[in-house]
Every structure is written in structure tokens, then in C-alpha cells.
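Subject — a protein and its fold
Fields — amino acid sequence, C-alpha cells
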Amino acid sequence: MDITPEKRVLLQRAISDPASITPEEKNQILMLPPPEEEARLHQSTFNLPSRAALVAKALPNDGADLSRAESVWLTGLGRRNPFEPLETSLDALERRLRGPAADRALLADARDAVTTTDERAAIRCAGHQNGRLAKEKAAERARIQALRELPRPRWLQELRDAAVLRWGFVVFRTAYGDDDAWRRFREYYGHTGSYAMAQWQGGSEMWPMHESVFVSDRAALEGADTAALRLKMQAMREAGEIPEGVRDDAFLVADETALSNGQVVAGERYSSMIEPSKTVFLRAVDPDHDSATPVPLEGAYKGFEGEITVPLPKVFDWLHYTLFSKSETWQVRYWQTTTKEWRPVMKGFSPYPGY
């Protein structure tokens, strides 16, 4: 670890006169990008305008409102650059730790001097949240392992017996304000599907065969209504653009609500610990529904227009299986999703489809 004469002067001034340190200098000491770049990274990473906003989020409820990414960021504040790849930041940290003890102490004292009282409190809260999340993750791993040891459910065995080589959905993007949001959504979609299938004995064996088709076309699909999306799906079928095994009797819609979901924006991974209200919900549409069909005004199918809203985890087991087996009609799916409260499957033999 080498400290230049200029850097040494800065560190000593931070210790003796913290009030004289500018925001730019503080970020140098805390191993952070310049303030403007840091603010941009906060917005794109956490959907928060600044470090101060993240600190404010951490203070209530002992950090319980922090996502894992946010709590990890805060616990690394001043020790490594949390916006760099982990291995890069840790390499820099290791170089610091290899330096003379006096230089290590100088760096630590300067860091402490420029860290505000609220930031220190936020770091403590983030550490507590990290501990809570680690316990939840350990319990989750144990639960999933127990599920994997249960007998394979009948519906999964049917998929296995059918020798399915590829399965998935066509997913249309209709919101185009943020390309990073589309990337994060696709990642979240994949993580959620992998997690959902792992809940079932033998489900993980099906996941490598999953292959959804993501369609992004600003000119044709920005703000597209259901009728336009149906025409697009029908055109893709006729042109042979849907790979064999990918569902052509349903499609999914990733709209602004899905892409701006807090879990997606934060880059979180789905788990059953997430409150149902925070889960991503997608529209699943019957591409062959006749829009001229009168919309029921009463009864079990009141308001049905050939589409449903379904929590993303249930896309991969319930929705896919019912389409594969033709065990339910779109009307029945609509009744299920509008009259039954969804909650994560918390035990291996929850009544299928797990509502």
C-alpha cells in the first residue's frame, strides 16, 4: 500500500479538520467515485437519488427496510468501493491491509473522521440487516433441500414423461423508458424461474431446458395494447419465429409496472421471504381470444377479456403446466387469479397450484 505525499496530507487534514474536507475529497477517502457519478450510480442501482437517501432509508426499523444489495453497500462504506466488482474492491482492500501499520491506522482514522454520525448508525443498521438476511437465507436453503427430498409431484412427472426438450414463453416488452430496467427484468425473470422450479422435487432438472423468447421492439410495441400484442404474437406464429416447445398458446407482457417493480430495480433475487405484495406480477394473454366476445358483467368470470394477471413465480409451474396439460381453461385461470389470494409455497405438499 502506497500513500502519496498528497494523499497523506489529505488524510491528516481529514483527521485534524474534518469540516474542511470537500465532498470530492471525502469520496476519495471513502474509496467512492466522484459525487456526481456516485449519485448516478445510486439512482441506477438502488433507485435512490443519493447516499444520504440510502442512509435515511437504513435508520428506521434497524435497517429492516434495506434490500440485501443496499445493506451490503452500506456495510462496505469506507472499506471498499461497493460500485466496483467485488474482486477489484477486495484486491484494493488487501493492498491497504498489507501496508505499514501506521498507514493503515492513518487511513482508518481519516475514514472515521469524515463519516457522519448518521452514516455510522446506518452502517450498524445495515450490519444487523445482513445478519438477519443471512439467517433467512440459511433457513431458505434448508427448506429447499427438504423440498428436493420429497417425491416428485405428478405434474412434473408428466412433463418428464413427455420428454420436453424446450419450454418457455414469449415475453413482450411494452415499456421503453430504461434499457437497464429491461436487462434487470430479464435477469430477475431467470432467477425467479430457477428458484420456483427448485421448490419441487425434480424441478431443477427441468430448468436447463427453459428458453423464453424476449421481444423488445420500441417502434412496434411501446405502449402497445392487448389487441396489438395479439396480432404480433399471431404474426410470429405464422412466420415460424417461435421455437418448438415455447408456448404459442399464451404470451406474457412486461409493462412499466413489472419493469419498475422494487425488487427488479434493486437487482434482488426472488425468494419466498418476499412479501406477496412486492412480487412481480405479469399479464398472461390468450393470443386467440376473440376481442368481439362480450365481457361478462357478472358471475365467476366477470370482467374476463382473455387475459390474467399472475405472480411471476407461478408462471413457471402452474401456468406452464396448465397450458401443457390443457387442464384448465383461460376462464378458470381468470377465476383462480381473481378470487384466490396468492402466497408463496411454504411447504412441499401445498395444494397445487399453491394459492
Notes: Strands lie at 168-173, 213-215, 246-254, 281-285, 307-311. Residues 5-133 form one domain.
